[in-house]
Amino acid sequence: MTPHSVSAADPQAGAAVKAADRAHVFHSWSAQKLIDPLAVAGAEGSYFWDYDGNRFLDFSSQLVNTNIGHQHPKVVAAIQEQAGRLCTLAPGFAVDVRSEAARLIAERTPGDLDKIFFTNGGAEAVENAVRMARLHTGRQKVLSTYRSYHGATAAAINLTGDPRRWPSDTASAGVVHFWGPFLYRSPFHATTEQEECERALAHLADTIAFEGPASIAAIILETVPGTAGIMVPPAGYLAGVRELCDRHGIVFILDEVMAGFGRTGTWFAAEHWDVTPDLLTFAKGVNSGYVPLGGVAISAAIAETFATRPYPGGLTYSGHPLACAAAVATITAMAEEGVVEHAARLGADILGPGLAELAERHPSVGEVRGLGAFWALELVRDRATREPLVPYNAAGADNAPMAEFAAACKKSGLWPFVNMNRTHVVPACTITDEEAKEGLALLDEALTVADRHTTGG
């Protein structure tokens, strides 16, 4: 199968775009001479396309952020209208669209998280949440899990658990890592979800005890870890972390940058477990990245800390009017069009069963896990031993099986989200049933490439 074709192909224009990119753009997370970025000509809904006329079904939502799809007309119109009325204003002023965005977000956050501090993205949201926790408690240490990603700025990258932390880890940022629950690769030798929950909580309780409860400002968790593997926490785990935080006066931060705004089939993933954190970070799906925006939702108790004491933090573009207009339009459209409910049904009726069926047929699929429009396939060489298809943090020749799998996806017209030995199925929350089934069929085809690298393949 070849990629879908779109009209008005212009290879010459694509070559010019790529040449300019190669000459001047410095790309993140990359060895600059070893990458070959695709020149994209346009996007709409669940698809984007290049200048050669090849169309791709976006099973990555870019960086799991275009929850409402590409070029949603209501969001585009809101940005255009706001640009004609008021493009920018410093964060110290009261602006109608900023206040409305904050109100709409606060209406959807759990509990009393009714104050919203705006940032430009998720990493800055994490930076400020940690700062608030430290100032609120007068403590410095922050605990986070090994299988996590919290951003690439100074505190956020130290909190991150995956290998992207290593080159920037100062080992002096007051961060302590611990193991979160993940039954498929349990560090606690658990055999059931209940055992995994109990042993993970006991491990965290021990970590707190040995680090000194009075020295710990916060525990930060991705409600459902994203890039690290979409490991849905077992029942009772988040409530157990909440109890440990309450017992020791520790601020509980939930990172919903990737899991929020419909991705798991609820406005925020915390709703699945009826848990309210003290601080909640968000970005990505708040306006699908149409204009950069993130933020921190703040509990009443932490907000009160700064009622008469200045909060020592801010950004020139905090609550940028264009970004907030996009957020207002996105949240309103999601509510009017039932996008969150659609994502929940999509996971229950289409993606979950469809991926489970693929797992039955493909020996390279060790586990399927997820919620809503947020799924991961753990690819393995051997289902019995659970040996990953490629080693942890593999590169070069060691990563060849996953590189071949990703290339097969793209050749067929499917744009995947691949990390280590996993492929994540994270399309727009607005993807239609037919488009989702098309993606599953393309994924089915590409998995035959991964199967060749299994024992007996």
How does this structure look, described?
The structure is a single chain. With 457 residues, this protein is α/β, with parallel strands linked by helices. The mean pLDDT is 96. It has 13 helices and 17 strands. Strand 8, helix 8 and strand 9 (251-255) form a beta-alpha-beta unit. Helix content is 38%, strand content 17%.
Oligomeric composition of the shown chains: single chain
**N-C termini distance:** 22 Å
Order of helices and strands: EHEEEHHHEHEHEHEHEEEHHHEEEHEEEH
Low-confidence stretches: none
Strand content: 15-25%
Give a count of the beta strands, DSSP E runs of length 2 or more: 17
> Order of strands across the widest beta sheet?
5-11-10-9-8-6-7
Radius of gyration of CA atoms, rounded to a whole number: 22 Å
Question: What structural category do the secondary elements indicate?
Answer: alpha/beta
Give the mean pLDDT.
96
Number of helices: 13
Overall shape: it is: globular
User: What percent of residues adopt helix (DSSP H or I)?
Assistant: 25-40%
Biggest beta-sheet profile: 7 strands, mixed
Annotation keywords:
globular, alpha/beta, 17% strand, 457 residues, 38% helix, five-stranded mixed β-sheet, single chain, 13 helices
Sequence-ordered SSE layout with sheet pairings:
Elements: E1 4-5, H1 11-24, E2 40-44, E3 47-50, E4 54-58, H2 61-64, H3 73-85, H4 96-108, E5 115-119, H5 122-137, E6 141-145, H6 154-159, E7 175-178, H7 193-211, E8 216-222, H8 237-248, E9 251-255, E10 279-282, E11 294-298, H9 300-305, H10 321-337, H11 339-361, E12 365-371, E13 374-382, E14 387-388, H12 400-412, E15 414-415, E16 417-419, E17 422-425, H13 433-451
Parallel strand pairs: 4-15, 6-7, 6-8, 8-9, 9-10
Antiparallel strand pairs: 1-4, 2-3, 3-4, 5-11, 10-11, 12-13, 13-14, 13-17, 16-17
